[in-house]
Here is the input.
Amino acid sequence: MSDGIAYQTYSVRRVAAMVLRYWYLLRQSWPRLLDLIYWPAVQMLMWGFLALYITEESNFAIRVGGVFIGAMLLWDILFRGQLGFSISFLEEMWSRNLGNLMMTPLRPAEFVAALMVMSVIRLLIGLIPVTGLAILFFGFNLWGLGFAVGAFFANLIITSWSFGLIASGLVLKKGLGAESLAWSMTFVLLPLACVYYPVSVLPDWLQWIALSLPPTHVFEGLRALLLENRFDGTAMLTALGLNLIYFFAASMVFAWLLRSARWTGALMQTGE
Amino acid sequence: MRVKSAAIVVSNLAKTYRDVKAVDGINFSVDRGQIVGLLGGNGAGKTTTIAMIMGLVTPSGGSARVLGADMARERHAVLHRINFESPYVEMPMRLTVRQNLKVFGMLYGVTDLASRIEEIAETLDLTKLLDRQSGKLSSGQKTRVALAKSLINRPDVLLLDEPTASLDPDTADWVRSRLESYRRDRHAAILLASHNMPEVERLCDDVLMMKAGKIVDQGTPTELIARYGRETMEDVFLDVARGRRSGERETTE
Here is the structure.
């Protein structure tokens, strides 16, 4: 063994090294920081004012108004969580640093753990000020939902990591030509996970697909909480169970795509 | 006296991309304390060979063992004792030199990292550059930073891909001196891919000549120059690249 070098099978220090690398990058670029807040704030204001307009039209809509803002904020956890994961990965592709990293002792599981930590950090940088704006402009307090917020957040962030793993794996295998998938992949969930409407409005056959997706149970749970004052623990456990299956499957796909990239030499050519 | 032992052992190593044989069943070894040159024209298979030795590419056949570990299967057991440098693989540009060295030092598990960064910065004359962004350095400075990164973990095995490309002669000479002293002090094994023949003559104990994925000749620079009846390694390189065998001179000169 070399002087002053510690060999470990799984190293929290290597995860910390990668988090530090992304933190340095984020800290040194104000446009990157601004971007984390800009779109969530614009979206929240747009949905908030739309909800205000609708609530002026009917009594039912008064109750639904908060659901719109809540759904938008939870959708942002899902979307921004995946983006936070994938963009940290893309930073390595853009700077052509992936080859450098893959020749260090960094293990794929450590790399993925660092991407997961960064997705939470990036998400919170955007989410905390935007939830503040929601209170200020519309009197909607996401944090006031208490324990349920934690359950919603945990389930949505795990789904976002599963999608981030698949998107990053595809970019790894196919190069930056697949980059647009990293930006758009999660949008398939927008209609299917019933973000802004209940599952019951879907045709029967589509309901089965919707219910096989973890976020559907979270958004149904949000509506149950805001419209019926009821925390649906079963829905959260169903979402968690589905999430574990999806995350395991996504990890297998990522590992397979990484093996395949090593086989085809894609790690040497991380451009287009 | 140090015992001679192989740090890199390459056996029947092959890589085929679809129907193209990038590396075609090569064999060689690099001992501790030895600098071996890997020479060949563009597309000869040098980069793919180095990538397989680093575990970045999975071989189609054969094996590359570094410090006893099969790099296709057991690379994580030895990656902390290996490092790599190439001017074509840049360090993240927005990070300062110190930040980059800190991140890579942590990845390699270097203990007492702050002092190691100071020490290596002093050795490679980087102290004044430590807090500057890596992307804003000149190419000579970037090469020194890349060299610092490649030595941060005091590797026992160092792989270098054209380490002095795009450097002025003075800086290139300076880098070669540093590599020579590192090899001597650390008794490290160094595999060097280069197109710079004076560099190969100066640094390498042994030279592997590659063409179309195969090793077509091997020997010390002196042996190869004598074998081809030439005066410099540059002439030998041209003979190999143009398909002339040892001892066979052009008659139309």
Summary: Residues 9 and 29 of chain B are 4 Å apart (CA to CA). Chain B is about 35% helix and 25% strand.
